[in-house]
Amino acid sequence: MKMLKMLLLLIVMTLLLIESQASEQIITIGASLSSEKMEFEFQQAVSHLNAKSKQRHIKFQSSTILMDSNPIRSALDICDKLLTQHVFTVVASHPNSTDHSPISVSYTCGYYKIPVLGISARDSAFSDTNVHTMFLRTVPPYSHQADVWVQLLVNLSWYKVIFVYSADEEGRAILSRFQTLAEEVNIRIEPSIKYTPGEKNYTSVLEPILKCTSRVILLSASTEDAEKIYHDAELMGMTGEDWAWIVSEQAFEAYNIPVGFLGVHLVNGTNEVNHIKDAVEVIGEAFIRLMSSDNISSPPTGCNESESWSNGDDVYNALKATKIEGETGQVSFNEKGDRVNPMYEIMNINANRRAMSVGLFGHKDQAIGLRMMGNNLTWPGNVHVKPKGEKISRNLTIVTLVEKPFVEVTPLPKDGVCRPVYPAKHAFPCKNGTQDLCCMGYCMDMLAKISKDVQFNFTIHLSKDGLFGSFERHNSSDKKYWNGMMGELMRQEADLIVAPLTINPERANDIDFTKPFKYQGLNILVRKTQKDSSLASFLQPFQDTLWILVGLSVHVVALVLYLLDRFSPFGRFKLAKSDDTEEDALNLSSAMWFSWGVLLNSGIGEGTPRSFSARVLGMVWAGFAMIIVASYTANLAAFLVLDRPEALISGIDDPRLRNPNEKFKYATVKGSAVEMYFKRQVELSTMYRNMENQKKYYTAEAAIADIRLGELQAFIWDSPRLEYEASNDCDLTTAGDLFGRSGLGIGLPKNSPWTHDVSMAVLRMHESGFMEQLDNSWILVDSKSNCPESNSAPATLGLTNMAGVFMMVAGGIVAGILLIFIEIAYKRHRGLKEKELELARNAADRWRGNIEKRRTLRQTLQKQKEEQLKANSVQKQPVKAPSHSTAVNSVAPKMNSNNTGTKTVIPPPYRRPSLLEATRERDCLPPPPPMDYPAPSYVPARSGRTVTWHNPSHSTDNLV
Asked: In this UniProt entry, which residues are annotated as the site Crucial to convey clamshell closure to channel opening (predicted)?
């Protein structure tokens, strides 16, 4: 009974063991290796993979053979010894003591769709997936050295090289890969020289290199060919100073490699053990991931089967998609099955002819790329100064164009000697096609300094089309080309562009720029808007209505003052106990004078109000006048500050630029960096389209000329040029602030050997202050401004502003002269009347005098007659009364004769003549006044409202 139970238990356990074995998937990994030691390492790697794997339903087994150096035997061994073991994939190395590639393994396994993982095959032929359909490798092909070469050239700033390669598949592969990568970083192969492998002499192959300008040689050659090439190159002087060589891994192993050569070395490239471990781990990761989702059929069991493995492509794709961090670094594959991101060392042959590691390239510690370790490299000729990489010519060709004040041209004198014109310090001959000219200006003075510092000679010519450079299509093709100075530099028609060339991204993609020699921005040039100054410009602080009200107020106040002072009882007064005359009330004329005098702040000596009411009004009027005058003065000052020529627009954000009308036109130079700037900026696209529809300007001079003529309202251009124009033409000005700031630089071909030296020369000129001197001499506004006023200074009065005041004074003078003539005429007319009156009064006075004399004479005669009659009456009594005739005769004058015969007329008795008789007698007329007789002055005397005139020379007693 016990025996029966034990038998049943044994049967059950056997069945369970068979079932577990049936559910476990066994993956056999084959290997064709170089030695028994490598077979042992492979078996250890597979065992380690089983111990490491967490998938218990998958078990990995190993099956190995030694690779035969004979490809046929190697293929037979794969069929007879590996495929019969149901291998899912094969790890292939190389035969012992040789470096033959496992090409037979790839062909045999590839036919049956069994993936092969190479660990030492570096031939570029294995990258052809049409031939080697199932081949992967943990080492990169030799052609991938081109990746390192490109990065090394960029790091050393060499962009023109000579490529020497063998006329075999390996040489063609590395050349093709290098050309593809070099085009992306603008590295140009000057010549590519192909040689035939196995030749005994390569002098004829190397001779064309001496005629090239490049001095950087890339060599892809086997070790045997490299030894011969080095020997011939050394005899031709191509391994000395100023040369640079970068060689492939095989060429770097030559025993006679010269000092200073650079090469690459694959890290762990020959470490077969590490590559076996990485290959096994890749296979394990791929199968675990693949079998977790799919079932895999069994592979072929020999070469006698005609069908390929159905799951071979799935396994191959799973292997390509695997990425691990292995013993040799990051292991991953590209679409061709080649290892990517391997680790390379940059090697350098030092003075002792020993290879030294000077850098790393590849994936390590999350860093991909080239990392150089210091700059202590040894270069050919046993020097430590990096070669320039080109055969440098000291005779350079300079291209420029006319752009004031940077470049100005004058005709070449007859003697052929260019002489600078102030402020230029240098003038150089230059050509414009066939025309000989002299070039001078800001850039020419700078070029003279740079050529002296860097030590080169130069010839100058102007740009053929007069353009800075922009993209344009040729012959209606889709491809664009540079025109202008940029095109000449790209076509190698010039070595340098020395002009105000703006540094922008489009140009920097195709050429090199030095450090900026001037920082600038964009600005807008417009004509100044001159305000017309009328004769009444001094009246601007007040509006016309206010002036009218002020003038009306003067006269209203004057009238009210007159009325208040006239009707006030205190308008006239006399102080008590004072002999002073009574002060009269303010008349209308004096009131007008007072009102104007207070307003104009003139001294009032007389004619002031006398009454209290009028004086209160006078004080209020004085306060009003003070406020008006102060307001006028302050407002006039404000008008003077603001009353200046202004720009037509405020700046780039002005609505007239963003939303222009048909009458407002603005532009920039066609094909310039400014146009590129507007084309590049999305927010300025409207302005760019508007300028495209306007008149095209190909030079700044044409646009500035139209600005002066008024045909163009605004010109957008570089600020130095616009500041120069505004400083030399007072009718022009710049509007708004700078925008689109950039720099002006010297242009050189891409990767030119002169770029560094010229840039350093520009920096030294900045540090020494030389560039500041050029700015002061050529560009700055203050240095050459001839305008009557500076834009930043306060406005000042001119004749145009105050012409009205002078006209007002002139009008006052003319009015005074006219009034004086009227007064003279009036005075003359009145003087004639007064003279007639004076003559009448003088005649009357003489007449009265004569009358008095005659009266006195009559009285005297009467008294004498009475006395005579009295005496006669005493002598002759009685006397008979005389008759009438006798009386008449006695009255009549008697003529007495004396001894001289003169008759004495005895006047008749006195009879008072009439006024008519008196005036008819000549002796009654007054004598004419003498010539110097002064006119009598008459003093008016007030008597109520009646005015009488008195002559102070006559007394009232003389009146009859």
From this structure: 649
